[in-house]
Design goal:
Blueprint lengths: L16 E5 L2 H9 L3 E2 L17 E6 L2 E7 L10 E10 L14 E10 L1 E5 L2 E4 L4 E2 L5 H11 L1 H21 L33 E2 L4 E2 L3 H4 L20 E9 L6 H11 L1 E5 L3 H4 L4 E9 L10 H16 L26 E2 L12 H12 L8 E5 L6 H15 L3 E7 L3 H15 L9 H10 L5 E7 L4 H4 L2 E2 L2 E2 L10 E7 L2 H5 L7 E3 L5 H9 L9 H10 L4 H13 L6 H8 L29 H9 L4 H6 L8 H10 L4 E2 L6 E2 L2 H13 L3 H21 L3 H14 L10 H14 L3 H16 L2 H21 L3 H17 L5 H17 L3 H17 L6 H15 L4 H19 L4 H16 L3 H16 L7 H16 L3 H18 L5 H16 L3 H16 L5 H15 L5 H12 L4 H17 L3 H14 L7 H20 L1
Parallel strand pairs: 1-4, 1-5, 5-14, 6-12, 12-13, 15-17, 16-21, 16-22, 17-18, 18-21
Antiparallel strand pairs: 2-3, 3-4, 5-13, 6-9, 6-14, 7-8, 10-11, 19-20, 23-24
Helix pairs in contact: 1-7, 3-7, 14-15, 14-16, 15-17, 18-21, 22-23, 22-24, 24-25, 24-26, 25-26, 26-27, 26-28, 27-28, 28-29, 28-30, 29-30, 30-31, 31-32, 32-33, 33-34, 34-35, 35-36, 36-37, 36-38, 37-38, 38-39, 39-40, 40-41, 40-42, 41-42
């Protein structure tokens, strides 16, 4: 967490910690973790006479340190030396634990080896190993402290945190190479040429190894030793143990293991023994190799980064005694961190989850603050989003890391609570206050005195800016806050206006709702959730939109009711229109970590704020009908208190569901709901219905949730609800959301049946909508019947709506064509076209559609050139009337492109369909049915032009749409799949095509009752296998199909199998198969004569080949 800068030493004798690095890149990494570099202030400390070393001086983790670029240092004032850098690791610790490359090793002691030369053939010693003197008592005490489970976990956590910060600052040099590059070979497997016996220029004949890369030498992967930790990328962990230190690099795996076993070593290095007997020393090094012949220098820079961050983690736990400036070489004294003065109202929450982004942001800002300047931060968010929980967790983490720092908590929601906070500080810090009226001044002065230490004040619930602007003893409360650099201030607030009174806007950190994973973790702290109920739990946190307080409320509500309440039942209660607002009033949140003021009924969290707005004219406007110019003021008021938030485009606002439920509850209690609900229905109906008619689909999608919501309101009089239900059903059906469209349309019809007084006005469009839904579901007969009833109702209206009648005629025309009733289709299309011309509105999009349908009917008669002419006229007309960028214009281009394709005019068709697709993408969702159909038209045209590479991504997109939005029962799914696989085969991606085909077949086999799907799956696989050199598999698939198809299909499959056998010159088998097929085939089956002719022709060819 935040590190406090110590006083800058007056001279070089003020430095008591030395960091020693032997290699430049090791020192570079240490310099990068400096919290402060004193040389940047222009400070120079000089060197002692005769000292040839080079130094850098700065601050790490609150300690003044000197970094020496050498292997030794004078010991004038140094109390502890830390040797930092890289080492060679023993792969297995004495206790059996694994070390991997990048792990950090901290010395318990050092064994010195005076090596002469290490060779694969053996190890030549000049002297016996020597155990260096034991560490000082102080160092041993520090080691004992660091090895405790709690501190070791914290050390590892802090190392990873600092490493991530270092990697962000210098990603190139600190990058982790990945577990795949972490290679450990058997000790006897020497790093030399494995594929040749001739030595090269990099071979060392004395050591019997080569300096080239393992890949070049042919070191085999099958020789690698599998490691338990290296199944994925790993973060480094810290190990404590004995180092082996020598004057040469160890490059022999056999000797490494021998020495490690004899002396219980965990790592090897070269510099530590030179410092150990001079100064109290700790070695902090990271593994860059396994002390064998297979060294890889690419790991060195990363290992140096790990060692440097391990150093910083250790220094964060190191306490040096107070010492007079310039005192000589006092012994290291490790004392427990002094108990800081603190007042925190609640214990730490052991179930705290998530929020690492906010905590990291707070920490980073504290660590990067400017010396001499006070830092003020604020966390801002709506009520219930977890601001105070974040502040509590931050405070405890802060105290864990900075034992010299104190934290005080002040509730700033009222003048009384603020004053009580200052009384608590006076009590905790033992500030003598003789005059009660001088309390605020006395505490402020004491906090502002830098000699009293470093402090953080947490001001909680700064929601009302008026509180801190209240005058006490001649000054506003906010002026009793210290402004000196030794005091940092953290504010929690719902109100941006209140926060900016105290904190610069760039230091305000927004707190959003939780992500799904954190929300589930939080819910599990209150409920035991079995795996089978995970989906329900996920649905619950989605319904609660990740609001922590709502999740805690739900968990508590369910838990205290035992078996009487489940997640599923709670979801039913939460459902709007039932008891969603009622359950918010039911249960108190029994949470001892909240102040008593906050432990109230859940809905009151926002009701109190809403009630505070009651007499605010801007809020009054928002809940009434007023002038548009006042809207922005009202929204700004709610936004400033985090009750609503502007969307990215700034034209819309979002409100959390819990806030909305609380607002509904407040309105009901105050008798405002009925009028506001009626107004909401009218507003949504006007926007949604007009957008559907104008086909402004993005607007429809934005308003859709609101349309669904207002239909749940129970208001006096039906008003515009039937029209809204019709518009909603129409939009949903057009976007292929047929189940919901079907339900709403049926509910609308039932509503009109029970209210005949208003039924006549809405019945025709509703019947037409229902007819369209049934047609899309494939129930054409009933769709036609309802359409005709709708047409009759529309024509019977005393003031007939031409647009409505033409739309119904258009729909009936399309249904008739789908039923192959072209005479009826032509009749409907003629009526619609004449009606458009008679009303002189041929340029309207519904008129253009009517004439297009007429064209489609003509197309069924094969008059392609006439159709092309009329299509061009319609395209020109739509462009003039609607503009070039309009959905109808894009549809006209698409239809003309299809006509041109049918006439083999593929180049012009390609251009038109591309323009249509590009235009439709700007209007429709990516999964819309029209996008799918356009994609199929375009890649079909490209395929005709043999432009396979361009067709492939389009067909892939279409295939993905089908996979996301359609079932295998849908005919378009199979057509799209066949087309995609054909294109893959066309560009020689046979393996991918086969893989997809097998996946599809596997899915179809999961529903064995649906034989037709399995048959289609087998057909898809056959399509691909024909282009693969796998005749046996293709034959097996053909034979399997024969066993599951209908009689007429079976004959067709036998013919396909015969063709396959014919290509393999298995003529006798083909003859037997075809003669059997001819005997089985029946004249009543469709296509009999054509099949018989084809099989007879094939038999003739077979007999000719047999006779040869």
């Amino acid at each position: 967490m935040a590190q406090i800068l110590p006083i800058r030493p007056a001279d070089r004798r003020g430095f008591r910690i030395a960091i020693i690095c032997a290699l430049t890149f090791e020192a570079d990494m240490v310099e990068m973790i400096f919290d402060k570099d004193w040389s940047e202030d222009g400070v120079k400390y000089g060197k002692a006479a005769g000292d040839l070393n080079t130094y850098s001086v700065g601050v790490i983790a609150g300690h003044n340190v000197v970094l020496a670029y050498c292997s030794g240092i004078g010991s004038n004032s140094i109390q502890i030396a830390l040797v930092v850098g890289i080492c060679g690791a023993v792969p297995s610790r004495p206790d059996g634990g694994e070390l991997v490359l990048g792990d950090c090793v901290i010395s318990s002691t050092v064994v010195q080896f005076d090596f002469g030369r290490t060779e694969p053939d053996g190890f030549q010693k000049k002297d016996n190993p020597e155990h260096l003197a034991k560490s000082s008592i102080e160092i041993q005490a520090l080691m004992a402290k660091l090895k405790t489970r709690k501190n070791l976990l914290q050390l590892n956590k802090r190392l990873v945190f600092h490493l991530q910060a270092l990697q962000k600052a210098d990603p190139e040099r600190t990058k982790y190479l990945g577990f795949i590059q972490d290679h450990l070979y058997p000790p006897t497997y020497v790093h030399t040429h494995h594929s040749a016996t001739v030595a090269c220029e990099q071979c060392n004949p004395d050591l019997g190894i080569c300096g080239k890369d393992c890949k070049v030498l042919g070191c085999k992967d099958d020789q690698l030793i599998k490691r338990g930790r290296l199944v994925k990328d790993v973060t480094p962990i810290i190990h404590f143990g004995t180092f082996g230190s020598s004057n040469t690099v160890l490059r022999c795996g056999v000797e490494r293991d021998k020495l490690a076993k004899a002396h219980l070593l965990v790592a090897f290095e070269m510099e530590g023994s030179g410092v150990w007997n001079i100064l109290p020393t700790i070695l902090i090094k990271a593994a860059c190799d396994y002390a064998d012949s297979h060294k890889d220098k690419r790991w060195q820079s990363y290992a140096a980064a790990v060692a440097a961050t391990g150093l910083k983690a250790v220094l964060e736990m190191l306490e040096l005694p107070e010492d007079d400036a310039g005192a000589a070489s006092a012994p290291l004294f490790l004392q427990q961190a002094r108990s800081p003065a603190k007042y925190l109202p609640f214990p730490r929450d052991e179930n705290f989850v998530g929020r690492e982004d906010v905590l990291t942001s707070l920490q980073t800002r504290f660590e990067s603050r400017k010396p001499g300047y006070q830092l003020r931060l604020a966390i801002l968010g709506m009520g219930g989003v977890g601001k105070y929980q974040i502040a509590i967790e931050y405070a405890y983490r802060f105290l864990d890391q900075s034992s010299r720092h104190s934290v005080f908590w002040i509730f700033a929601g009222s003048i009384t609570r603020f004053q009580q906070g200052y009384k608590d500080i006076a009590c905790q810090a033992k500030i003598e206050v003789l005059d009660e009226t001088k309390l605020l001044d006395s505490v402020c002065q004491w906090l502002s005195n830098e000699s009293n230490g470093q402090y953080t004040l947490i001001l909680d619930n700064v929601d009302d800016r008026a509180v801190l602007q209240e005058v006490q003893n001649g000054k506003q409360l906010q002026h009793y806050l210290p402004t000196t650099s030794n005091v940092s201030i953290l504010v929690t607030s719902r109100s941006r206006l209140a926060a900016v009174d105290l904190v610069d806007t760039k230091n305000i950190i927004p707190v959003e709702v939780m992500d799904e994973q954190s929300s589930i973790e939080l819910l599990k702290t209150k409920l035991d959730i079995d795996e089978e109920f995970e989906e329900l739990a996920l649905n619950l946190v989605r319904q609660l939109e990740g609001l922590p307080l709502a999740i805690i409320h739900a968990g508590s509500y369910i838990a205290v009711r035992g078996s009487r309440m489940t997640v599923a039942k709670y979801l039913e209660l939460l459902d709007a229109g039932k008891s969603g607002d009622r359950i918010l009033d039911k249960t108190e949140i029994l949470d001892n970590r909240r102040n008593m003021e906050a432990r109230r009924i859940f809905s009151a969290i926002w009701e109190r704020q809403i009630s505070a707005f009651k007499w605010n004219p801007r809020f009054q406007y928002l809940i009434s009908i007023g002038e548009d110019r006042k809207l922005e003021d009202g929204l700004n008021l709610l936004s400033s208190y985090s009750l609503v938030a502007a969307m990215l485009d700034g034209d819309a606002y979002k409100m959390h569901r819990m806030v909305q439920l609380s607002l509904v509850t407040w309105m009901k209690k105050n008798g405002l709901f009925e009028a506001r609900a009626s107004l909401a229905v009218c507003l949504v109906d006007d926007i949604f219905t007009s957008s559907v008619l104008a086909r402004r689909f993005p607007i429809c999608e934005t308003i859709l949730p609101h349309a669904r919501k207002v239909l749940t309101y129970k208001v006096d009089g039906l008003g515009k609800i039937p029209a809204l239900m019709t518009a909603l059903s129409t939009y949903l059906a057009d976007n292929y959301r047929l189940c919901e469209a079907d339900r709403i349309s049926q509910e609308a019809i039932a509503l009109l049946d029970s209210n005949s007084a208003i039924g006549e006005k809405h019945i025709a469009p509703l019947l037409s909508c229902r007819s369209n839904i049934l047609a899309l579901q494939g129930n054409l007969t009933k769709a036609q019947s309802l359409g005709e009833a709708a047409l009759e109702k529309a024509k019977a209206d005393p003031n007939p709506d031409t647009r409505q009648i033409v739309s119904i005629l258009n729909q009936l025309c399309i249904i008739s064509m789908k039923m192959d009733s072209f005479a009826k289709a032509e009749e409907y299309s003629k009526q619609a076209s004449h009606l458009c011309l008679d009303t002189m509105e041929p340029g309207k999009d519904w008129s253009i559609l009517a004439m297009s349908n007429h064209i489609t009917v003509l197309h069924s008669q094969g008059k392609l050139q006439d159709l092309e002419y009329i299509r061009r006229q319609l395209l020109s007309l739509s462009t003039d009337v609607n503009g070039a960028i309009h959905m109808t214009t894009f549809e006209m281009k698409w239809m003309l492109g299809q006509d041109l394709s049918r006439q083999k005019k593929f180049r012009e068709a390609e251009i038109l369909i591309k323009e249509a697709l590009a235009g439709m993408r700007t209007i429709l969702s990516s999964d819309h049915d029209l996008i799918l159909r356009l994609l199929r038209s375009l890649y079909g045209t490209l395929s005709e032009l043999q432009q396979w590479q361009e067709a492939e991504p389009l067909s892939r997109e279409a295939f993905e749409i089908v996979r996301r939005t359609r079932t295998l029962d849908d005919e378009d799914s199979w057509h799209t799949m066949h087309e995609f696989l054909a294109i893959l085969v066309g560009i020689k991606k046979n393996d991918e095509a086969e893989s997809i085909a097998r996946d599809v077949l596997a899915i179809t086999r999961q529903t064995p009752s649906k034989i037709h799907l399995i048959d289609e799956g087998l057909t898809v696989l056959c399509q691909v296998l024909r282009f693969q050199d796998k005749p046996e598999e293709l034959e097996r698939v053909f034979i399997e199909q024969l066993g599951i198809t209908t009689k007429d299909d079976q004959i067709r499959r036998m013919m396909h199998l015969g063709e396959h056998l014919f290509r393999q010159a298995r003529y006798k088998e083909v003859e037997n198969l075809l003669r059997l097929a001819l005997r089985i085939d029946h004249p009543d089956w469709p296509g009999y004569e054509e099949r018989k002719a084809d099989m007879s022709l094939m038999l003739t060819k077979v007999e000719q080949n047999i006779s040869r």
